[in-house]
Amino acid sequence: MLYILDYGAGNVASLANSVRSLGFDFKWVESVEDFDKADRILFPGVGAIRSALSSLREKGFAEPLKKYIASGRPYMGICIGMQVLFESSDESEVEPGLGVIPGKVGRFDSSDKTVPCMGWNGATALRELGEAKKTYGLDADSSYYFVHSYRVAFDEKMEDWALTLTKYGDETYVSSVQKGNVFATQFHPEKSGPAGLEVLKSWLTQGEKGQLVDTSVKPRREQADIDEELVRRGFTKRIVACLDVRTNDAGDLVVTKGDQYDVREAEESTTTETPIPSTNAADGPSSDSTVPKPKGRDVRNLGKPVDLARRYFAEGADEVAFLNITSFRSCPMHDQPMLDVVRQSAETVFVPLTIGGGIRDTTDPDGTSRSALEVAGTYFRCGADKVSIGSDAVFAVEDMLAAGGKKTGKTGIETISYAYGNQAVVVSFDPKRVYANSPEDVPAIHRPSVVDLASPLPGSSTPLKADLGPNGERYCWYQCTVRGGRETRDIDVVQLAQGVESLGAGEILLNSVDRDGSKAGFDLRLVALVKRSVSIPVVASSGAGKVEDFSEVFRETGVEAALAAGIFHRKEVPISDVKDHVQAEGIKIRVV
Ligand code: 1PR
């Protein structure tokens, strides 16, 4: 019997779904006795090693797990499930590792690259794999999904254990290990599409009729071949499909899409339905934009959330994001339809899923309070890999700035990233341009975020089309908004970006109210400004209209990922065309 070890953090639902989708049954490890009953153990660690190790010890699982591994029965670890095998980790000074593998887990150097490392990369075999070219289902031509800030650097001590190597920036690290009955990957097979499922299947079927394959005895490959492959494969940019989800006037949960955040049809509809007014006075106007709208305009309906997520997975999206865009209303967890959307999508969509909207402290109608951490945890257990925080992040940074930079440790960003790791916390920005004729017209505090709308990007000689304000203004700064663009706040994107990074966010999803739905291309000046303010990954969003927009934003700003909604929903630009174009431009991308 296969047992999966869930120590209580992160998204284990996806692994369970992928194992089931391959036709295997399993049980959860619930007691010390289960280690004796197990024929095979899968340990899908996610997030922070500190909580993984302390939870294993609190449950009394650490010694039984070591005994299980020493017994020679098959063990597969994923991400933290690989890192716990080592003697120690820089991430957790107080909790020693299990010591199954000699060596230490260290942190990526962030001086030359974004950390966490979040995205797709190859896995280059250290040893000759013979005719089959594949061991443990690992394919030299496939990409796998990695998300981590810590890694095991490759050196001669790791020769015995390293199965594959991967390169991120200048660092070559161990992306999977194998020796005897132990196999573990730094990447997430359950999030790596068909290529990842192949790895899981291979491990699940190995040893069923005899011995496990032991690659550690095979001869080593020529170093030059390994180096060539490490560079050729490399870290890829990501293409994200985004689904703005809300209930329409008929009460159906639909994917919608706005222009500058107005998600209603331009023309008054012929139906007699009227928009449902907000039931909560605190919600403000029940319209979907700051722009006044005539009555009777329907919410645009571009399809069902789960169907579209499945379509994008099949078409090769590297990630799928769901944003609950009516979360500005009260959104108690007890009847949150987005939970089902995530649950159902995670059953068949094996790439990372992000869920945003309403990730904050909430109160159910019966008075039950739920912390942002609890809300996020509920989504993770349903199959989300990351949560995206919008309005609450702005308030958190405002409070931190007002307190002279002091952190409380109690904000959603802090509590969620502490428990689940900062890779699990995205912050979604909804900035708007504020135009000015001169930088001096901008309040001094916001001048660091002023951009010149008539010049090339700083440090670039590539000409960039002037993009002046409506009255010919040459400058602008980017003001943050909350509640889906309804309310502006006295904070700019640079303050927000640096604030959320210091609170522990692992990624920024950078929308633009001005460009949303415009198909005019990403706001390169905005994207470049935020990208150079932080060292965490940035996802450029809003305005994609053609394949060239993607290569341009990658080339000109260096962002890690680019997101689009409208052009994918309306099938105007297929994801495969975007990827073919980006690849033809010499930019690394995962091609399915
Ligand atoms: O504040 O934590 O509850 O989160 C609310 C979330 O909902 C935020 O992430 C916010 O961005 C999002 N949101 C709220 N209202 C809207 C709206 O459109 N009326 N959607 C909204 C944000 C922007 C992107 C869109 C890109 C790409 N929409 O999601 O997908 O602009 O579109 P394009 O490629 O078609 O140009 P909280």
Distance between the termini: 33 Å
Query: What is the tally of helical segments?
Result: 17
CATH homologous superfamily assignment of the largest domain: Aldolase class I
DSSP strand count = 28
Report on the architecture of this protein.
By secondary structure, the chain is of the alpha/beta class. It has 17 helices and 28 strands. The strands form six sheets. It has an eight-stranded mixed β-sheet with strand order 2-1-3-4-13-12-11-8. It has an eight-stranded parallel beta barrel with strand order 14-16-17-20-21-26-27-28, surrounded by nine helices. Helix 8 (305-315) runs parallel beside helix 9. The protein starts with a strand and ends in an 8-residue tail after the last helix. It binds ligand 1PR. Ligand 1PR is lined by residues 242, 244, 257-258, 261, 263, 288, 323, 325, 327, 356-359, 388-392, 428, 430, 484, 511, 516-517, 541-544, 563-566. InterPro entries: Aldolase_TIM, Class_I_gatase-like, GATASE, His_biosynth, HisF, IGPS_HisA/HisF, IGPS_HisHF, Imidazole-glycPsynth_HisH. Residues 261-301 are annotated as: Disordered. It comes from Leucosporidium creatinivorum.
Quickly list its features:
592 residues; alpha/beta; Rossmann fold; TIM Barrel; 2 domains; eight-stranded parallel β-barrel; 28 strands; 27% helix
Task: Summarize this structure briefly.
Substrate binds at residues 358, 511. The chain is of the alpha/beta class and 592 residues long.
